[in-house]
Every structure is written in structure tokens, then in C-alpha cells.
Amino acid sequence: MTKTDQGVRRVFICGSALRGQPDHQNLQSAKFIREATTQPRYRLHAAGDAWHPAIYEVPEEGISIPGEVYELTTEQFDYLNANEPPHMYPADVVLEDGEVLTAFLYPQELVVQYSWEDISHYGGWAAYQAARQKE
Question: What angle is formed at CA 122 by the lines to CA 44 and CA 50, rounded to 5 degrees?
Fold first, then answer.
């Protein structure tokens, strides 16, 4: 986890807690820093009934995932972590510029077990949700 001198953590958000998404309030009053994109190392799936994204790292054929960087206090991070869906866990992700931040990933084994739809081609969770609303 990346920590700053002020005791806050920078976290990469790329799913249902993005601005404009239904779980954004789980960030509480976390400070928005910037939009960012990961290096092309990840796959993105729609977990359950497209309730939340399932993101995991892959050795090849990955995509870049767009998202947002926030600074969270320890209390905000703990709250966010406690309100993530089951099985999601904090892990490092590498942004396009090489910065390593914490994001919430999902076990690839469960994605495979449940045959959740690979939505990587949509170009991110918000784009996927927007496409679903047009259907």
C-alpha cells in the first residue's frame, strides 16, 4: 500500500465506487486525486448479476483498466474494505505511469468457477454499466 507522509493511502478505484456509481459513498469524503489507468495486466469480469466488477492480474492478454486515484485515511480505507463484496481483497496494481497503488481485486479461481462474463472489451466498469443501460 502506498502511504504518504500525512498517514493517508492512495487507492485506485475502478468499479462500483467510482464517481457516478452506486457505491461511491463508500469512499466517504476521501480526496479525489486524479483519473488514471492501469498497465495492461488485468482482466475485468461482471461478478454475480453484474453487481460489481471482478478484476484480477494475468500474465498475458491483459487490458488497461481506467479508474480514479483517491487519498484515504486509515479509517476511510478500513470502512471501504469492510464494505467490499465477499472475496474482494486489497492488492497492488500498477498504473500506466508505473505508480503502484492498492486496489480491490477478486480471485480469478472464483471468476472461472462461476463463469462470469468477461467484460474487458467494454473498457472499464463505468463503460460497461453505461452500455447495459442502453440495452
Answer: 55
The answer to whether the CB of 69 falls within 8 A of the CB of 12 is yes
Domains held by the chain: number? 1
8 A C-beta contact, residue 67 and residue 37: yes
Pairing status of strand 89-94 against strand 66-72: unpaired
pLDDT at 50: 84
Q: What is the distance between the alpha carbons of residues 135 and 116, in angstroms, rounded to a whole number?
A: 19
**Digit-coded pLDDT (tens) for 37-54:** 999 999 999 998 888 899
Q: What is the CATH number of the domain that holds 113?
A: 3.10.490.10
- 104: which 3 cell numbers? 480491490
Q: Give the single-character DSSP code of 135.
A: -
C-alpha span between 77 and 102 (Å, rounded): 10
Q: What is the pLDDT of residues 5-17, one digit of tens each?
A: 467 999 999 988 8
Residues 131, 61, 94: CA angle, nearest 5 degrees: 85
Q: Which domain holds residue 20?
A: 2-134
Length of the chain: 135
